[in-house]
Amino acid sequence: MKITVIIFASFCVLLNAQEYNLAEDEFGEEYIMVPLPLRRQKRQSTYDLSHAGGLTTLKLGHTQKFLDDGINKFSLNGNLAHTFTPRSPLTLGGSLNYLHRSGSGISVGVKNTPGYGTDLGVQGKYNILKKGGATFDAVGSYSRHYGGSSGTLTPDWFAGVQLKIPF
Question: From which residue to which does the signal peptide run (predicted)?
């Protein structure tokens, strides 16, 4: 019982020690204004309009980083592509990416073109050793095409190790 009273009293003292901004609306209601930390989110949009071989293609992309605490980074990417020809479908895609400060990470992406099917891909890398500028990583990927005129294809995958030595 004494501990509860001490905790409650400490809470009341801390609550009263805080500085609050009060605001009042047109009806006389009072509100406590609590400052929130502002954090700028990094966004990047890209476009490419090209003309080659008699075909004009438009590509749009957008990347949104929604977590970057210096150790972990998460981002979402979205993109679309369209070639301006009769009956040319619009290709839509996106990915979710994670990157750790160590260089380890994973990316999951999907792309769909109506009439041609959907492509799914997963790529990952795990940093085993980093010394100086050299890195030794376990890497892997998986991709598969679903649907469309060619039907569902067998998956492509890869697993291995990678050594990078700067010169």
Answer: 1-17
- pLDDT surpassing 60 at residue 36: no
Q: What is the reported pTM? A: 0.67
Residue type, 138: A
70-76 long-range contacts, CB within 8 A, separation 24+: 70/101, 71/100, 71/101, 72/98, 72/99, 72/100, 72/101, 73/97, 73/98, 73/99, 73/100, 74/98
Helix (H) or strand (E) segment spanning residue 7: helix 2-17
Q: Are 104 and 121 in contact (CB under 8 A)?
A: no
The CB density around residue 84, as the number of other CB atoms within 10 Å, is 11
DSSP state, residue 15: H
Average pLDDT over residues 82-86: 87
- Report how far residue 62's alpha carbon sits from residue 122's, in angstroms, rounded to the nearest whole number: 19
- For residue 122 the two structure tokens come to 């997963």
The distance of Cα 60 from the centroid of its chain, to the nearest Å, equals: 17
Q: What is the dihedral of CA 68, 72, 76, 81, to 10 degrees?
A: 100
